[in-house]
Specification:
Blueprint: H1 2-7, E1 11-13, E2 21-23, H2 25-44, E3 48-49, E4 55-57, H3 58-64, H4 66-70, E5 76-79, E6 82-86, H5 91-98, E7 103-104, E8 110-114, E9 117-119, E10 135-145, H6 151-157, E11 175-181, E12 187-196, H7 198-202, E13 207-208, E14 214-215, E15 218-227, H8 228-239, E16 252-256, H9 262-274, E17 279-281, H10 289-298, E18 303-307, H11 309-314, E19 316-321, E20 326-331, H12 332-345
Parallel strand pairs: 3-8, 7-13, 16-17, 16-18
Antiparallel strand pairs: 1-2, 4-6, 5-6, 8-10, 9-10, 10-15, 11-12, 12-15, 13-14, 18-19, 19-20
Length: 352
């Protein structure tokens, strides 16, 4: 994966910040595309996004119980006479938000999502590329709900196989873990859904029930992708650099043929970029057409648009895939419509 990240200029690590990833523009595109995907699902499923601080007084972590059990894995900052810690998770902050006013049963479930940066002081020997880092981001969310809105009923409606593992619950309470395997057969825990009875008690969270009495909410911690960094590592291994179009950091390479076509080629690139596509142009006059096409294929551009005098005159592009298949001459408007459909459907297909 390290070779892939260097070849495609996705990300790198540096000793000045051990265990923290530097995402280059193309890597940031993958990172942001995954984030945008999850945010689009949030809007469909009733989640609201919140923004919370990164640095908190240790009094918060003592209240939540994390200081007692997790302090050795937290980065601390001392500003006399106070000690602060970088957050390794978002849940205590969301509890603070819940308690800002009296909540009603009519509001529940409340679904809050948070993409804040998290820091965990992993031992240097445990660090491993993007799969184990010190600075990371989760598609993290917390659901505050009533005891009647619970996990088991959801699992019973789930049509796929699942197994009960008694006694394997974490500190907070029962949880659902989803394990996936990467291209090398390694198993990773990414998605997790976990009940929490502890934090609502520690923060004395309450809501007013239909009968006017005060009740304790249940808190559910959930992430689908899990760590974005770890998910990118898994996807990189899976696709081996041949990213599907919707996720690809190198979607289209425009190749002009002849000096007169360069202006049109630039216009095509501008149209593509304005529509949000990752497009570049190879205007090196010293390279042959075959060399330009080969270079674009090696760089894993999903599509290569060749434009010459004929394409300039007709407002078209000649389309090739990175696998070498020629899809023929198409109008730019038609191609952009097809590309947009591929992006929206998140299809893995190659043909337009």
């Amino acid at each position: 994966m390290l070779f892939l990240s260097q070849a495609q200029e996705l990300f790198f690590f540096h000793d000045v910040s051990p265990g923290s990833c530097f995402f280059m523009p193309k890597g940031a595109h993958i990172y942001n595309t995954l984030t945008d995907f999850i945010k689009s699902e949030y809007r469909r499923r009733g989640f609201s996004e919140v923004v919370t601080p990164t640095l908190y007084s240790t009094s918060l972590w003592e209240r939540s119980g994390h200081w007692e059990h997790y302090s050795e894995n937290m980065f601390t900052v001392t500003c006399e006479p106070h000690t602060f810690a970088l957050k390794p998770m978002n849940c205590p902050a969301h509890c603070l938000m819940f308690e800002q006013r009296v909540r009603s049963w009519r509001e529940l479930p409340i679904r809050w999502a948070d993409f804040g940066a998290l820091h965990r002081n992993e031992h240097s020997g445990a660090l491993g590329g993007l799969t184990r880092v010190r600075r990371f981001c989760q598609d993290d969310a917390h659901i505050f709900c009533t005891p009647e809105q619970q996990l088991e009923s959801s699992l019973k409606q789930f049509e796929e196989h699942w197994e009960l593992n008694p006694g394997d619950g974490a500190f907070y309470g029962p949880k659902i873990d989803i394990q996936i395997r990467d291209a090398l057969g390694r198993q990773h825990q990414c998605a997790t859904i976990q009940l929490d009875f502890q934090l609502p008690i520690r923060f004395n969270l309450q809501y007013t029930g239909a009968d006017g009495q005060m009740y304790r909410p249940i808190m559910i911690h959930r992430a689908v992708l899990g760590s974005l960094e770890r998910m990118i590592a898994i996807l990189a291994e899976n696709f081996r650099g041949k990213w599907p179009f919707w996720l690809s950091p190198a979607q289209v390479m425009v190749v002009p043929v002849g000096g007169g076509s360069e202006t049109y080629g630039q216009e095509v690139v501008c149209r593509l970029r304005e529509a949000g596509f990752m497009a570049d142009i190879d205007d090196d006059r010293g390279s042959t057409l075959n060399k330009k096409i080969r270079s674009a294929q090696l760089a894993q551009y999903n599509y290569i648009f060749v434009v010459g005098e004929k394409e300039c005159a007709s407002g078209t592009v000649s389309v090739r895939t990175r696998a070498g298949k020629q899809l023929g001459q198409k109008s730019l408007q038609e191609v952009m419509r097809s590309l947009n459909e591929l992006r929206q459907t998140r299809s893995n297909q190659e043909e337009l």
